[in-house]
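Shift notes (night). Ran DEAD/DEAH box helicase family protein while the centrifuge was going.
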Amino acid sequence: MSLKDKIIKSEYRSLIDNVVQDFYIPLLHESTSYKRAVGFFSSSALVEISKGIADMAKDGGKIEIVASPYLSDDDIQAIKEGYENRQKIIEGALIRQLSDEHEDYYSMERLNLLAHLISDGILDIRIAYTDKDNEIGMYHEKMGILEDKDGNHVAFSGSMNESMTAMSINYETIDVFCDWREAEADRVKLKENAFYSMWNNVEPSLKVLEFPNISDVLIEKYRNKDPNFDIDHEQFKRRILAYGSILQGMSNSSGAQVGARIPADVELHEYQKEAIAAWVGENYRGIFDMATGTGKTYTGLGAISKLSEDLNDDLAVIIVAPYKHLVEQWVEDIVKFNMKPIIAYGDPAHKDWRKKFSKAITDQKIRRDKRFLCVVTTNVTFASPDFQERIDKIKSPILLVVDEAHNFGARSYAKHLDDRFAYRLALSATLERHRDDEGTALLYSFFGKKCIEYPLERAIDEDKLTPYKYYPILVYLSELELESYEQLSYEMSKCMIKDKHGKYKLSKRGEILALKRSRVVAGAMQKLEALKREITPYKDDNNILVYCGATRVIDDSDTSSDDESDIRQIEAVTKILGNELNMNVARFTSEENMEERALIKEHFQDGGKLQAIVAIKCLDEGVNIPGIRTAFILASTTNPKEYIQRRGRVLRKAANKPFAEIYDFVTLPRPLDSVSGLTIEQANRDKTLVKNELARIKEFGRLALNSMLANNLIWDIQEAYHLNETDLEKEGEDFE
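Came back to this:
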């Protein structure tokens, strides 16, 4: 066959076409010569250039590449000032682009193949740069010419660089011309003449030179075994036979990709790509510690896609999220990455998950087009005997991805973290477990080290999250509430026991008392009066969140359970907003089903009649409602995981949202001007609550646009209770 026998489109767009499999591989298979002018020279560009050339190289074809060096500002300045020999500077810049970071199987195989082709004289690389009036510039033209044994030519040009990002992620386009098409013959000839002029260094104002040392470095750096000329067939799961027919090797009957892949319309940020690369370097194990709203889910899905491709799609992926609504949220994104997940949890809509899971495991063993398997489930279902029994039957490598992974430090989940999972990924904005060093250590021991730390301050600085203003609103316990708080504190003091490490902790009864005490603070009646005062100026606005409820209880159920005091508070808040201020509000709690929640989110986002959401607990982890502009937080938690998650809900980017506002109802035992009249014993009893509230004010205030407001309040509280920084560093006794 020849190039003329191939179906060749006039244009290829990366959002529509698989350029490697639909253009490069079939056309290069029929070619005897490949001339390519690309963008910047780098090892990753060489990896991409190699896709499709193995067959033609094995049959004696010839490959000529022209690339441009990536010169830093210092390089260009040094050339201008003549500090060093120009070619030496360019050579140094080229060598810097030969990375040591390629560790995945396919990249190393391809670089080894290229090193052999250079050594055998099949592949030749020359370096181009512009040189006009002694000004050095980059050569940016991107085009290629293919020629077959019959002298037919195909030329192409366009915006696509030879890099993984351009080939598979960015939105790129190439235009294609064939010389046997009469209207296109002149275009092909122009490209041929241009490449000839470049290659022979006769193009005006363009220098194209050989760099023998670069070839030597490439050979020394990457050649380490016999070349793998079957690499294209292995990686892309299709065989292109000598007579030109294409067999679907491991892809499904429709020709679609079997495993996970990053979609062409998804552009990962550099920090996400770096996180994935670091995870690969840690043998596909690690932790993505990323602030809420910075793209943990897409980074995780990008990591799944990378491993799937590296393992030739022979992989079982198990994704675990805390709640049903988060599983559904994951599914929305999973399907974009070319996966068809089995949804597994106790719900009538998914009651047949056991049958589907078992069938998928069987199919994986006997069908080549079913070797990729993805299941997404809740924490509770993951820990169930039915689910664990099926994991034991999986024969392919397993990747375990755990969202909000701090929950897996609990003993009921941690006991299932074992060697069945060859590959591991933890996602969390707050992996450290509150007052549970043992559980935190277990998570690090199983998942490995952090592959990325992307904190809130960096996310705001880099415009990935919205800046915010913080308004701490002081409220105080009533006389009855304070009496109850002090009585519970006294009873808790009698419930201290030593753990196995000799440290004091609360007994089971003490933990129950601590929960009751935290609910006294969360349900302080003054909060309702203060809320009405603070929210009244916003009564005609939209995109408002009011966060009610007490400290969240972690248990082994799929839904939150709210006690009577929580419900009373949310009902009172709903009444204030809806009846007294005539606002359009909706509750967002565990009582609303999935469909109702989806509808609430839709109406809230579209800027219509729904002005405010009144929520309890279930917004703590993972729920994505970027439209929130103003939050009123009544829930007084001392658990950093919870208040960091709650702040993250408010800071997600959205249109027409230059900044967010957070009103935090800070609860103190009594007005500050009355503290001076207390006995030392009375003041000391206050300090546990005071220090816990101060910790949250400091955390919220330190990154706020109006940080002085929080700082002034902190100074006032510290002065009233005679607290210094040493006092604040000591943990309070508020076990939750």
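The longest helix spans residues 680-702. The chain has a mean pLDDT of 82.
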